[in-house]
Design goal:
Blueprint (H helix, E strand, L loop, with lengths): L2 E2 L15 E3 L23 E16 L8 E20 L8 E6 L10 H13 L2 E5 L3 H8 L3 E2 L3 E2 L18 H14 L14 E7 L1 H13 L6 E5 L43 E6 H5 L17 E6 L12 E3 L3 E2 L8 E2 L8 H18 L11 E2 L2 E2 L14 H4 L3 E4 L17 H10 L1 E5 L2 H7 L3 H17 L5 H9 L7
Parallel strand pairs: 1-4, 5-6, 5-9, 9-10, 10-11, 11-12
Antiparallel strand pairs: 2-3, 3-4, 4-6, 7-8, 13-14, 15-19, 16-17, 18-19
Helix pairs in contact: 10-11
């Protein structure tokens, strides 16, 4: 549990407070389904249910000289009403007791589910239950604006479905998610799961800024009901509340301002009694996203693993889907051919899947995950081979037997953006910057590098088998990589 100081008011909301669940009015509009992977994409029968969850939550701050794990109540018992979505095996007998809570990402101003999108097939195959939570007030505005991007572009036909939602302060999220965990653990009317579904392990996950939320939650709000944390492409903790940062322009004096953690105190704690997995893409490392320059990598501990995935991109949206319904597909947004960790050609999602299984294995059987390895730096930049690909890090065969150059960013294709979407150009530009590019080698280069297709395939399969043996890759995903060898190539 976090260390709470100066708690003089008994009326403060607590992370153990009960929540109230209700089902949305289905006649008021359609749901905004979060994530690009739908239940139709998973290999097992799954069902999805949306709930509204309400209660009161305390907003916290730090001491004037902040310390990790020491928080103070700032605003007591602030009412909220947000939403969550449960995706669970249709048959409770298929649920294995693992529950993943994703703090939905809000960078695009509406909820997205990058953790689900990367690993949905794994979750379904293993019988894990998934709970996604709207944890920021930015998507609440989107939902109340009838699911219209920028208040103009319709993303879903939700109409008045979400009119009653309210999340006044982002800092409420830490109590809200704790209350959801307690409800899951205790069961009964406040649990979003039917009684027949076991809750044996609860893991928290988030990507990018919501990965930062998970860092802050794990470091400052961990309690015994949580069994592990998965920080996906994020390096630094998120703010504990939305107040003005002490010392910033126009900020009032403490305690009306919020102290900011400095230096390594912004990293996730590595002394927690439960495992933490942190996975960074090459994008995060290359642009210093979250101060992950050379020398700032956290060392592995008994309960902490830090991975840097060479050749992978921060963005994990699947190719072939509309990122703006009926208006714009992912592959039409960026100028260069795409390399995303969801659809490859460097499948970072496969590496993430193995990390998930290693996390569960550590909790269930006390088997530590394999160690991480950093991407190599030289003269303050990523060290690259003769083909321009990163050296070091956690590597799929595409990096050791390259047929292309895999770069960690992209640029927006402004000429291909419909006029209606020009107001969203800054957001699209950010997305492309966080997506990867792939530049395939020409036939002459491939012929010179790999004169024997048979030898190429033998070496590729050996690299895949080595990754499986060292638990960096699951057998199911290894089979997918090997099956792709039948596609046109060297």
């Amino acid at each position: 549990m976090p260390l709470l100081l100066c708690l003089p008011f008994p009326a403060a909301a607590a992370p153990t407070d009960p929540i109230v669940l209700e089902r949305p009015d289905e006649t008021a509009g359609e749901p905004h389904i979060v994530g690009f992977r739908t239940l139709a994409d998973v290999p097992e029968p799954y069902v999805e249910e949306e709930f509204f969850v309400s209660g009161t939550a305390t907003v916290y701050t730090y001491e004037e000289t902040p310390r990790r794990g020491v928080v103070l109540p700032r605003d007591l018992a602030v009412p909220y009403k947000t939403r969550l979505s449960v995706r669970r095996p249709a048959d409770p007998a298929d649920a294995n007791g693992t529950v993943v809570i994703e703090w939905w990402n809000s960078t695009g101003t509406f909820d997205i589910a990058p953790v689900w999108d990367a690993s949905a097939e794994l979750f379904a195959r293993e019988g894990w239950t998934y709970v996604g939570v709207t944890n920021s007030n930015v998507p609440i505005v989107f939902l109340q604006n009838r699911c219209r991007l920028g208040g103009i572009i319709p993303v879903a036909m939700c109409r008045q479905r979400y009119a009653s939602l309210s999340l006044p302060e982002n800092g409420q999220a830490y109590d809200i998610v704790s209350q959801i965990v307690h409800a899951l653990r205790q069961g009964g009317d406040s649990s979003p799961l039917p009684a027949a579904y076991p809750v044996e392990r609860v893991f928290h996950a988030g990507q990018s800024q919501q990965g930062g939320s998970v860092i802050t939650y794990a470091s400052d709000f961990h309690f015994e009901g949580n069994d592990g944390y998965f920080v996906q492409v994020a390096a630094l903790g998120r703010s504990i509340n939305s107040g003005p940062v002490c010392g910033s322009a126009g900020a009032p004096p403490y305690p009306a301002c919020t102290p900011a953690l400095q230096g390594t105190s912004r990293f996730v704690r590595t002394d927690l009694p439960v495992p933490v997995i942190q996975a960074l893409s090459e994008t995060d490392v290359s642009i210093g996203f979250g101060a992950v320059a050379e020398g700032s990598r956290q060392a592995d501990t008994r309960t902490f693993r830090h991975y840097q995935m060479a050749g992978t991109a921060h963005a994990g949206v699947h190719i072939g889907v509309d990122i703006i319904p009926n208006l714009l597909k992912l592959e039409d947004t960026c100028l260069n051919p795409l390399n995303t960790h969801a659809d490859g050609p460097v499948f970072g999602s496969y590496l993430l899947n193995a990390m998930w299984k290693n996390l569960e294995r550590q909790v269930r059987g006390h088997v530590p995950p394999p160690p991480g390895k950093p991407i190599s730096f030289a003269d303050g930049a990523i060290e690259r081979d003769e083909f321009g690909n990163a050296i070091g890090g956690l590597r799929l065969p595409e990096l050791d037997l390259p047929v292309a150059t895999y770069l960690p960013s992209n640029v927006v294709d402004e000429e291909n953006i419909p006029g209606l979407l020009l107001p969203a150009l800054p957001l699209l530009n950010l997305f492309c910057n966080l997506a990867g590019s792939v530049f395939p080698f020409d036939e002459a280069t491939l012929a010179e590098l790999y004169p024997s297709e048979r030898r190429f395939e033998q070496r590729y399969r050996q690299l895949v088998r080595n990754l499986v043996a060292r638990r960096y890759l699951l057998a199911e995903d290894a089979a997918r990589l090997e099956a792709a060898l039948d596609a046109p190539g060297p």
